[in-house]
Amino acid sequence: MALLEESIKRLSGGTLDRWLHGATRHPARAIGVGALATALVQSSSLITLLAMSFVSAGLVTLPGAIALLFGANLGTTTGAWLIASFGLRFDLAQYAMPLLALGLLGRYRLSGALAGVAGLLLGIGLLFLGIDFMKLGFEAWRDGIRLDGLSGERLWHWPLLVLIGVVATVVMQSSHATLLLTLTALATGQLPYLPALAIAIGANIGTTVTAVLGALSAGAAARRLAGAHVVFNLATAAVALLLLVPLAWLVDALAARVGLAETAWPLKLALFHTLFNLLGIVLMLPWIGHLARWLERRFPDPVRLPLTQARYLDSAALNHADTAVGAMEQECRRLDRRAYHLLCTAILLPSADVIGHPPQRQAVDAAIEPAAWPAVNARYHERIKPLLGEILAFQARIDVPLTEVQQAQLEALQGQTLRMVEAVRFGEVLQRSLLRHAARLSPLREAHDDLRMALAVGLNRLAEGAPRMISRPRWTRCVATGSTRWRSGFANIASTPGSPRR
Q1: How crowded is residue 200: how many other Cβ atoms within 10 Å of its Cβ?
Q2: Rounded-to-integer distance, Cα 123 and Cα 96, Å
Q3: Is-contact 77 240, C-beta < 8 A?
Q4: 275: which residues sit within 8 A by CB, 6+ positions away?
Q5: Are 233 and 305 in contact (CB under 8 A)?
Q6: Under 8 Å CB-to-CB from 331, ≥6 apart: which residues?
Q7: pLDDT tens across 51-99, in order?
Q8: What is the distance between the alpha carbons of residues 343 and 335, in angstroms, rounded to a whole number?
């Protein structure tokens, strides 16, 4: 399962991330896409961790991610269908060995997408071999250890059976593996039918452990989603256990309708697994909004972080390429906004007169009180430098496979951020020059006011994301005042080709 997850993540190249991200805008679509994605990758744990990464990075809303988890629970039932339909009927060992040989050779000899294909073959080969080994193992137990003593005749059998499913899933970190064991035990007569259904219910509860473990080191948003996963699975399991016998009757009726044999226990278990997950979705879907609001109250956002700390660089975002790049982009934009306000301080103009609407000449011509303006250098060390350090440290920790587009986007973000910080450092020099000649009688005051107006227009366009920047003749004023370094640093930002926020 681990090899399959790793290989599919490498082969998708961020496609899976973008697909899931775009699907969470509508609950019904999110459920469908979550189910389909889980059916393709055969791992609800992978989809759960992806959803937690999206929520932590602020890329999707909590209700959308909850609906995605509902779909993942439904999609995980396809594993039981595949095993019951094919895995227990054929000798998979004869197909396993060629896949293992090809996978092992390719994994260590190839690179890129071909290495991902090799890893996929290796994972499928190991899965086939595992199914065959478990069939042989249960056949060897036929006359030894038996589980049919837990036939459900006593009331305490049922919670114990559910607990067996929970513990098995927690130990193996895969509900597919637990269902595989249950199906093979059922097919070889080691386990009665109704107790097998109770173990399948326990397997559903056990999958929540992956989400809980993933949320321990994550922020409040990921903990809310993990809480939603626990609530949904516990509620679904409780309803399924209470209605176990009626659901079993329904399964028998549907099996007879589609022509399944009365003793086709593995297929009936797969049908039961699908039905009770569908029942849970039908019951919980109208309550998604209420559940999200309750979880937001139960796991509130931490106290607002100080200005020297990042807001979006959650460690959970490092699990996947799109969430890592998305978190970087949001934090770089946040640094940009701080830099815009600090550059307004550098040119001795209030941010309210520059950002949000075209600057007016009256604001530039107003009297300047030097004591009213904080030093750019102090504000830089307080607000910009620590955040820049966290952004660069986060980027250094990204070790998931990136596409060429994602790599180029990261490089553009880093380059733009460094140039913005460089402009702020040059702003310190400019501020000192402006303060020296702030008096009305200074011969350079008029030239400085022209420069301040030009820079204010440029900052306004930067903040609005306008493609055109300040014209070159205005920058000659800057050379006249001796701030050549400021001119070149700020001009680099304006002329960056392909920058996400020019």
Answers
A1: 27
A2: 10
A3: no
A4: 247, 250, 251
A5: no
A6: 310, 311, 312, 313, 387, 390, 391, 394
A7: 777 777 666 788 888 888 888 888 878 877 776 666 555 565 677 788 8
A8: 12
How far is it, in rounded angstroms, from Cα 379 to Cα 282?
A: 54
Instruction: Give 111: exposed, middle or buried? Use CB within 10 Å, 0-12, 13-18, 19+.
Output: exposed
In degrees, to the nearest 5, what angle opens at C-alpha 426 toward C-alphas 425 and 429? 105
Asked if 8 and 41 touch (Cβ cutoff 8 Å), the reply is: yes
Q: How many angstroms separate the CA atoms of 131 and 92, rounded?
A: 8
304 burial via Cβ count (<10 Å: 0-12, 13-18, 19+): exposed
Residue 178 to residue 26: CA distance in whole angstroms: 32
- Coil, strand or helix: which one is 214? helix
Please report, in angstroms and rounded to a whole number, the separation of the first and last CA atoms in the chain. Answer: 44
Supply 169's token pair.
């899933």
Written as one letter, the residue type at 293 is R
Place of tokens 């073959």: 121
- For 491, list phi and psi in degrees, rounded to 5: -65, -30
- Of residues 184, 164, 174, 185, the one with CA closest to residue 84: 184
Measured CA to CA, the distance from residue 44 to residue 174 in angstroms comes to 8
Cβ-Cβ contacts under 8 Å for 15 (sequence gap 6 or more): none
pTM of the entire predicted model: 0.56
User: DSSP for 27-59?
Assistant: HHHHHHHHHHHHHHHT-HHHHHHHHHHHHHTTS
- The residues, ordered by sequence, that sit 6+ positions from 246 with a Cβ below 8 Å of its Cβ are none
pLDDT digits (tens, 9 = 90+) for 269-315: 888 888 888 888 998 888 888 888 898 888 887 655 554 478 788 77
Rounded to 5 degrees, φ, ψ at 270 are: -60, -40
